[in-house]
Write a structure and sequence with these properties.
Blueprint: E1 6-15, E2 18-19, H1 21-29, E3 36-37, E4 50-51, H2 65-68, H3 73-89, E5 102-107, H4 113-126, H5 135-139, H6 143-152, E6 158-161, H7 167-180, E7 186-193, H8 198-206, E8 236-244, H9 245-250, E9 257-259, H10 279-292
Parallel strand pairs: 5-6, 5-7
Antiparallel strand pairs: 1-2, 1-8, 1-9, 3-4, 7-8
Helix pairs in contact: 3-6
């Protein structure tokens, strides 16, 4: 029996340069920068002043007031990006007809930290009675896959990993495994973050990992530049619909790409610094190439982070 194959049939970004596949792609072609001065809170006490904020976000366009009470900003991004991906894939779904063969694999570094900070400040002012009773389900990291499943009626595998900056990539790799191992025919995979709060910016500012660029905030993110002085934090989400190949072909889906291989390990060395000799990274790349049955000279692009 041949191995089941996984392909991408839908794309759904929520970003600081545009929402939805077409708007996002046009912004990339126009070389648009979504990085600007922080406006969501007073950042004057920090040396970090730039971020990739989503400024045109109105959750009431997508959710009822009752539903919003249970959705932190991070979960809002996750659910809407999933919807954009599903619509782009022209995949039918209905909460009234739950589907056991569709699952969700998501990732996040910080989950509902934004809501946690907001509610802690309410606690300081009003005591325990001032805290929203839905706080526990809002700050829960797994609220991404949980709320996507609830929104669309997906009863297959459901998981949210928290592997820091690799979380979204891990979600795609795990989706490949679920498809191959016949746990699902379709997986909605992706990542979401809403980390632009004083506690998060402050924490990274203290350890000097973020850019303190004093000029045009749109130029603060400068990877590979001689004057690079750190990364720029942003918010948003991106989802992809990953589908078993024959399932996609049977319904005439447009196929963007195939997910061929995956590997995951860790250095067991340090929370932020990699092993100096890079051996774990080398092994992960070799294993991924082996899984994909590709020689190194067929690789066109390597994502550096």
């Amino acid at each position: 029996m041949s191995q089941r194959r996984a392909v991408i049939t839908g794309i759904g970004p929520i970003t600081c340069i545009g929402h939805g596949r077409e708007n996002f792609w046009n912004a990339i072609l126009a070389e648009k920068s979504g990085i600007n001065s922080i406006t969501s809170f007073d950042a004057s006490v920090f040396r970090v002043r730039s971020a990739g904020e989503i400024g045109d976000w109105d959750p009431e366009e997508f959710f009822s007031p009752h539903r919003l009470k249970r959705l932190d900003r991070y979960a809002q991004f996750a659910v809407v990006s999933a919807k954009l991906a599903l619509d782009d894939a022209h995949l039918e779904y209905s909460r009234e007809r739950p589907q056991d063969r569709i699952g969700v694999s998501f990732g996040t570094a910080l989950g509902g930290v934004c809501k946690a900070e907001e509610q802690y400040l309410r606690y300081l002012k009003k005591g325990a009675r001032g805290v929203q009773p839905t706080l526990a389900v809002q700050v829960f990291g797994g609220s991404a896959h949980s709320n996507i499943a609830i929104e669309f009626g997906f009863r297959g595998v459901g998981t949210t990993n928290s592997n820091s900056c690799a979380s979204g990539t891990v979600s795609v790799g795990e989706a490949l495994r679920y498809i191959r191992d016949d746990f699902a025919d379709v997986i909605v995979a992706g990542g979401a973050e809403a980390p632009l709060t004083t506690i998060t910016i402050g924490a990274f500012d203290i350890i000097k990992t973020m850019s303190r660029w004093p000029g045009d905030p749109g130029l603060a993110c400068r990877p590979f530049d001689l004057l690079r002085d750190g990364f720029v934090m942003g918010e948003g989400a991106a989802s992809v619909v990953i589908e078993e190949l024959e399932h996609a072909r049977a319904r005439g889906a447009h196929i963007y790409a195939e997910v061929l291989g995956y590997s995951l390990n860790n250095d067991a060395f340090h929370m932020t610094s990699p092993l100096p000799n890079g051996e774990s990274s080398i092994r992960a790349m070799r294993e991924a190439l082996g899984d994909a049955q590709l020689p190194p000279d067929q690789i066109d692009y390597i994502n550096a982070h």
